[in-house]
Amino acid sequence: MGEIIAVTSGKGGVGKSSVCIHLGMMLASKGYKICLVDADLGLKNLDLMMGLDNRVIFDMQDVVEERCLLERALLQDKREKNLYLLPVCKGVNFSGIHQDDFVRVMRVLQNQFDYLFIDTPAGVESGFRFASSVAGRAIIVSNLDVSALQDADRVIGLLLKEGVAMLELVLNKISPRAIDKGMCVKIEDATSWLAIPLLGYIVEDARMQSCNNRGLPIAVARDSQLYHCFDVLARRFLKEKVALPKLNERRFLSRIFAT
């Protein structure tokens, strides 16, 4: 039976959906069958970022209301045959799905996929509550801004209250220069503050937004910095003993991330 993971954050704009897509794509490239469930209602954009927006015809709400079979609502990625997307709803109206419906569909998907990643809304909207009710593991995405870390800390408390015991942190949009100049919280201070294991970090890259807008995830480019970051992230997610690069050693970074 597959594992269900909630991918969440306390603050919008930290790159939660990008992390969800790229981690899923990296795992799919390693042979795992992956389903991304877009439960970020109102701000749903996984279909756009994956270049699948024109293919969305059915969603989970159609499945629940018996307008189509679950297989018709699943969209296969254009690049990775093991990666699929399930939109929860095409619009912002979530009234047609109750928590029991959501859980039932997720249990069916567990028998079809190795990993299910639920992209949740930032905060405590319905999508967040539904995901936390069924996930046994959660990835909290944040950057090194104080406000983002404060909100992430609040979300960690909510997840623990819901009984999601396995929590892991991904720090996104990491800039070694900003850390060196004291313009943001240090990684070790952020992990100490949130007190959950650091799964990985993703370096800041100006190309990310452009690629997301074009539906072309940058993780497919093997010579990119982001590919290396997501490869390490995926391997650590799979419990491989892989060390993180030491950000305070610039020569080490330039050697690892030479393009």
TrEMBL record:
The keyword Cell division applies. ATPase required for the correct placement of the division site. Cell division inhibitors MinC and MinD act in concert to form an inhibitor capable of blocking formation of the polar Z ring septums. Rapidly oscillates between the poles of the cell to destabilize FtsZ filaments that have formed before they mature into polar Z rings. It comes from Candidatus Merdibacter merdavium. GO terms for biological process: division septum assembly; negative regulation of cell division. GO terms for cellular component: cytoplasmic side of plasma membrane; cytosol. The keyword Cell division applies. InterPro entries: MinD, MinD_FleN, P-loop_NTPase, ParA/MinD_ATPase, YlxH/NBP35. Belongs to the ParA family. MinD subfamily. Pfam families: ParA (PF10609). ATP binds at K11, G12, G13, V14, G15, K16, S17, S18. This is Septum site-determining protein MinD. It comes from the Bacteria. Signal peptide: none annotated. Keywords: ATP-binding, Cell cycle, Cell division, Nucleotide-binding, Septation. GO terms for molecular function: ATP binding; ATP hydrolysis activity.
